[in-house]
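Build the 3D complex.
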Amino acid sequence: MVPLSAYVAVSAVLFITGLLGVLIRRNFIIVLMSVEIMLNAANINLVAFSYYLESMAGQLVALFVIAIAAGEAAIGLAIIIVVFRGKISTNVDEMNLLKW
Amino acid sequence: MVLVFFTYFALVSIAAGVLTVALKHPVHCGLALLTLLLHVSGLFILLNAEFLWAVQLIVYAGAILVLYLFVLMLLNLKTDDRYLHSSYLYFLVPAAIGSLYVLALLVRSPFGGAKGDAPTVAVLQDGDTYAVGIKMFSDYLLQFEIVGVFLLGAVIGAIVLAKTPKPITDKRAR
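Done.
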């Protein structure tokens, strides 16, 4: 029997990996991939708690998280295409159009 | 046996996550992300969530990752020499210390709580898909509809954003 804290630990490690990816990578597409890692970590957490606390709600929320991840990927990649068309760069440091 | 599978899936998914963040070429990062998604779906199987396993394979590995690889192929990226943020060491050290602290807290805590209304035996009797469906179309119907509207908005937004802009003087020139 695997304890619940093992699942939560895996989820925490993955989440921190994704957070580091968002913070230190400079390619916009890799940043979006790191966001997917973080969403997956949250899903592991939700499903693990749903199993150990014997409730269905966690799996349903995980399902909604997957749907929102799909929408986020579509919009994010469309934004990348727009930016790439104008500036020929996907480096996040060079995207400062909205900077005050 | 479950412990062996859990160890395998957990270690490989963590390794794939680290590779996704650390690899240089974006296509390699995408393939590492695919490995991560497949092994996370293996964790879902261990947790009796076979419906989410299927959704993870179809939506994540089948749709989202293909979208990423398509965009990578369209953009024809060149790999930069400096691919990390210039001051990434300032993030790395606090992240390592903080994660060790969080892990120490997690391993010690018992995570007790009130049990819900879906015990494992009842879920295994009819299957996870049945349980998810019954719950989704009774208690979570409003959220389900909202997610549908959200996805429609995302589709329309993606099309509008990625469309080639028409030149404004097109009509007047004719």
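The mean pLDDT of chain B is 85.
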